[in-house]
Structures are given as C-alpha cells and as structure tokens.
Amino acid sequence: MQKFENVDILKSLKVIMQTHTEHFQSDFDIDIKTLKQAAKSPNLEDKKYLWICRPAGTWRLRERDTFIKGSWEHNTFCFYAEQTRDKILAYAVELMGIEKGRVTGNLYELDYQKHYEHVKDASVTPGATKLIYENGERTQEADRRITVDTDPDLGKFLSFEEQPKDPAALQNVLRDEKHSRERLKSGDIKAHIETLSSKGREKKPSLRAQLAQDKKNVNAAPKKQAAKNKNKGLEV
Description:
By secondary structure, the protein is of the alpha+beta class. It has helices spanning about 10-20, 25-40, 65, 70-85, 110-120, 165-180, 190-200, 205-220, and strands at about 1-10, 50-55, 55-60, 90-100, 100-110, 125-135, 135-140, 155-165, 185. The termini are far apart.
C-alpha cells in the first residue's frame, strides 16, 4: 500500500473511478460536490474520508462516522465485504484545501478486505444522535427515528451527526489511523493509475453476467437513512 501526497484529489479519484467503475459513474458527481464542500470546512473531521470504488458506483464516507458502529457509513463500508464479491478499490482521503480551483490533499491506498476487518474491530459504540437546526442543536437516543420536522424553538432542520458513547475512544482510533497512514511508502500517483488501467484492460466477465451481478448488488445495497444524503444532510 502506498501514499500519494499533495495531489489533485478530484482529478486523481476520477481517473481511478474510470479504470474500475463500469456502471453508475454519475455517483462521482456527488463525490465532487461533497469533497469540494468538505475542503472548505474549518472542521478537520470533515476533511477525512474513506472512498470506495466499485464496478457499479462509488461512495465517499466520512472517516469519523465510519468508525461508529451501526452508523450508515459503517454499515455501507462493511456491506460490500459481507454481501458481495465485488472487487473494491479503497482509499483514505485527507483534504488540504482548494488551490486555484483544485481540491488538494493526500490519498492513501487501502486493502479493502483488510481495512474492513480493521473497521469492524476498531469501531466504537454509538451514543446519542446530534440533530442540527438553523438556530441550534439537540440530541436524541441513537435508535429513535430522525425526522425533518421544524423545531418550534430551533427552527429548520439542517442535518444530523452520530455521536460515540465515548468520544475519547473515537479520537484515539482516528489518531491511530492517521499515524498508520503516515508510515506508508510514498508513491507516484500517475504510475499507480497506469497500473490500475493495465489491470482494467485484462479480460472481464461477459456484459450480461456483469449486468446481472450489478443489478443484484444494487438491489441489496444499503439505502440512505431517513432520506439522508451523503454529506450528512437530508434530502427533502
């Protein structure tokens, strides 16, 4: 596994996606929007994602949320190891900012199957759910249904965020992830993508077989929680 530092994040991920994703490439349009917004955030936790690339689409999952058991992000990351035979390309993404219109940052190559096992083992117990409104916040029990109703005191509902039962434990996990990635060997992103492109040109299953498998996986894939979109807001 390698790390690729100070790269054009969106350009690099797009080319990686094109080498591996045959169907639902439009998922990457959401990746672009989410990562651009995250790159502008003053919150460091918003700038770290796990990105997975599948034969039938992509996901970008905030790393913080992926390490909370039972969260939509955690369940989505684990789904493809537990329920499919898809080959998954996975990367940790650290966003640095936007320079001359380019989202810059670092990419860290992950072994998806090994990282899935790690996520299962290292994830922390969930606590309450934070509900965020235009004029403030409140919390509710983790297993209660989330609604988009306007709060009479706090105003319009904006988004929600899963909270760990032990915040210090989650911070320790995230700190360990950062230190682990920093020990990876530096690589050349162009050479890495060329290697992926070469593998992509190898013999593939028939189109009929691939479409059948894609349809099966899409039907079984995790759905958005409570109409949640992929950057923690809600679609209404």
